[in-house]
Amino acid sequence: MSVPLYQAKAEFFRTLGHPARIRILELLSERDHAVHELLDEITIEPSNLSQQLSVLRRSSMVVSRRRDGEVVYSISAPEVRDLLLAARRILLGLAAQLADLEPELTPPQPSGSQRRQAR
Amino acid sequence: MSVPLYQAKAEFFRTLGHPARIRILELLSERDHAVHELLDEITIEPSNLSQQLSVLRRSSMVVSRRRDGEVVYSISAPEVRDLLLAARRILLGLAAQLADLEPELTPPQPSGSQRRQAR
DNA sequence: TGATCACTTGCAAAGGTGTTCAATTGTTGT
DNA sequence: ACAACAATTGAACACCTTTGCAAGTGATCA
């Protein structure tokens, strides 16, 4: 293998590491979308959307085709959906753990709201 | 929820987006490791390793504790393991697709080692 | 106490990423 | 052929990350 797998993985995750790209993938994992449909859902400049789409295209996570004067994008690896779900599970799990350890943080508790957090 | 979920997800994936951090998580998902054990496995300056560990700590993906004069790290969300596996599956799937679409690019292989993998 | 080991932190240089605007391509309708 | 639309590209700038070195902390042991 030319590129070590852990490096390919890192690149892959970096590709996912942008809010707009996450939203795009979430929308596409429901159904194919034309660019202007994505624009309706995501608050972003058209050119910026295009940039993000091109990042996803470069990584082969999505493909585009032209249909009736629009460009339609689809997910090329349906398993991406599972990945996003797995991420949500982990995220919610971590959040729950945090809430557990520091229940005194969230509501504006007056007395001794000192945060100790192992520096 | 204060931070939109898709933004938290992006942050989460960005945390995974570094080769050293991937390796650390892979090692930790096998078993807990002391810092110097990680150093033996990963080719990296100690201070750099420390920085990467601190990124993982900040995101609550790992926790550290001191034991017998060493600092031992462990994974705090065991599901991370599934996530790494899911990533590998997708990565290998994408690679296979690429190999399929452009068999003429890599080696000039003549006879049919074709792989088909229906989009 | 002082030396040493095991890590961590601060910081500056270098490199990389994201955002926007303007310009461009390509397609469709008149 | 031209205008209008849809999407993309290029370039400049700001911002963030990574890296390595030097310095620092904090525990353990002679």
Automatic annotation (TrEMBL), chains A, B:
Q: List, alphabetically, the InterPro entries matched.
A: ArsR-like_HTH, HTH_ArsR_DNA-bd_dom, Metal_resp_trans_reg, WH-like_DNA-bd_sf, WH_DNA-bd_sf
According to UniProt, the name of this protein is Winged helix-turn-helix transcriptional regulator
Tell me where the transmembrane regions lie: none
The record's keywords, sorted A to Z, are: DNA-binding, Transcription, Transcription regulation
Which species does this protein come from? Nocardioides islandensis
The record ties this protein, via Pfam families, to: HTH_5
Record's keyword annotation contains Metal-binding: no
The chain positions of domain HTH arsR-type read: 1-95
Protein origin, superkingdom: Bacteria
Q: Name one GO molecular function term.
A: DNA binding
SUPFAM superfamilies (UniProt xref): Winged helix' DNA-binding domain
